[in-house]
Structures are given as C-alpha cells and as structure tokens.
C-alpha cells in the first residue's frame, strides 16, 4: 500500500495467476487456534519508497458452507500492518504485530502498529499475536544502521528543506566515525559509495576543516580494514583488490558536489586550532608550498574567459596532500602504512584534473576559432 492507502502492483504472482498483482493469499487454516502459515511472498520494492508505504495484512474468516446463495465466502475479521520505511531505514527482520478488529483509520500507515490507535478495538487488548518475518534482498538499501546513519547525514546536507535542516557538525562527525562500525558484508557492498562520499566531504567540508580531518582518518581506517581484515581479497603485493579496483576501474571524477555550506563557511574553511598544525620544519615547509600553490591557482584568470570556472575550485589531490600533512596520531600512521592507496588516489585525481583542464582549453580554442 502507498501513502494514499491504495494498493500497488508490486507482488509477484503465482504460476497459475498474473505475473504482478497487488495482493497475495496464504493457505487456509481450518479449525486451528494458533495457525502457522509457511507461505513465502515475493514483493518488488517501490523505487520511490517513503514513510507512507506499508504492508497491509487482512485476516479473513472463510465460510465453508454458505447458508444462502450470495453469502460472502471471505469475511474480513482483522487487520495489521508493517511500515516499510522508518527514519529512512528499510524495516526488516521478525515482527510480532497486534491485530485490529475494525477498519483502520486514515493515514494509519505512517504509524507503527505498536501505537494503540484511538477508537479501534484490538484482539486481546492490543497484545502482539501475529508473527511475520521480512527479508530484503537489495543493492539499494544498506540494511546496516551505521551506514544508514552516515548516508542520511550526507543526504541532509544537499536537501534544501526548512522542515528538515542539515545535520550539525557534531552529528556529521559522529555519523562519519560510525562507518567503521558497520558489518563487513554491507561495508563491502557499499564500499565505493562510502569512499565517494568521504572524498567529497574532504574536498568540500560543509563546516570547518575538521570535518575533512575526520573523513581522512576514517578513510585510512577503511583502507586498513580492507587490507588487514579482508585478507582474502589481497593481491600479490598485499594490497586489497577492492581498493585497487576502485582506483583503476571505478570512475573517479572531480564531482561538483552540492553540499550546503554553513553560514560561517562562505569563505574557505580554516583550521580550527594550531594543535593540528605540523610540528616538523619539513612538514611546515610542505604545507606552505601547498597553500601558495592553491593561492596562485585561485588567482589565475583565463584570457579566453568563457571556459574557466567563475569560482575557485578545490583540487582533490591537493586536499588529500593537505590532510596528510596536518594529520597526526593514528590517522597519520595509517596513511603512511597504506601510502600506496593515497598516492595513487592523488595521481588519479591529478590526471583527471589535467585532462579536464586540457579539454576546457580545447573547447575554448574551438569556440574562439
């Protein structure tokens, strides 16, 4: 059922019926006070799944011997439901639901069946009686609370909705750190999506630059997890094949992210404190070189004019190098232990940037001619 409580053609039918239908019947249980239904029903999840979508269960009394011609054979005697989406997460697992004895009120699908709806009679006083299990096979929903927390926090940054403001900086950092607590299976399945989001936050931190530092630290921890814990995916050089595949085959592009900026971050984010600053003279000198290079890049103005960006863009390879230089502690150690990944990332981004720049020059010259 959708948010308007209308049935959706999303249930796969049986071999004797249509391929897709909006309802499915179980086997009939006769004279059994505690019936067990072993039917397996396959449902196609809607693409635009929202908080209003739900599964509606209707219990019928089957009349075996109608007294009169035209008597109803199936008489509805109870109802229950499961909201499919809650707080942005797909609901799966085992549920024990109460059974309502009356027609459900309007907009019931947005509520949990655990809510005792007013003016509705319940079987045995709202006691949970109906046991049902939902199992999802999906490549869209992570089915992991930690990954869902991070992806929802990231999504909130790009949604311009006053009713649902973006997460705070503290909540965003907490969501980023929770990524490494995810289960191995969904982490591997959504690894490339997570890496893309972390790199986007490094290049375009929505708040202070400390968000980039947290992303860089988590990125190093993910590389360590892929290399050490998932050792069955390592190549002859001890590198995780998941990471080498990401670098060599996955499309790493200089994305124009639409992450919202806070009111205090209209200019380039600045370092929060000197505690994160490099201490050695070599690191300070390297940081000065990077900053000087960034300033010269921002001040470049094209003679042709129409193919150069109007606003300065941060280069991903420069941001990675910057975070590496100013990192410390465990983040710095993990970056050096897995330096091949970060170095190859910077090379890939630099090549992509040069190709994009050369293509822009070519388009500009072609237009001028």
UniProtKB/TrEMBL annotation:
It comes from the Eukaryota. GO terms for molecular function: guanyl-nucleotide exchange factor activity. Residues 1-137 form the C2 DOCK-type domain. Transmembrane segments: none annotated. One of its GO terms (biological process) is small GTPase-mediated signal transduction. Pfam families: DOCK-C2. InterPro entries: C2_DOCK-type_domain, C2_domain_sf, DOCK. Belongs to the DOCK family. This is C2 DOCK-type domain-containing protein. The lineage of its organism: Eukaryota, Metazoa, Ecdysozoa, Nematoda, Chromadorea.
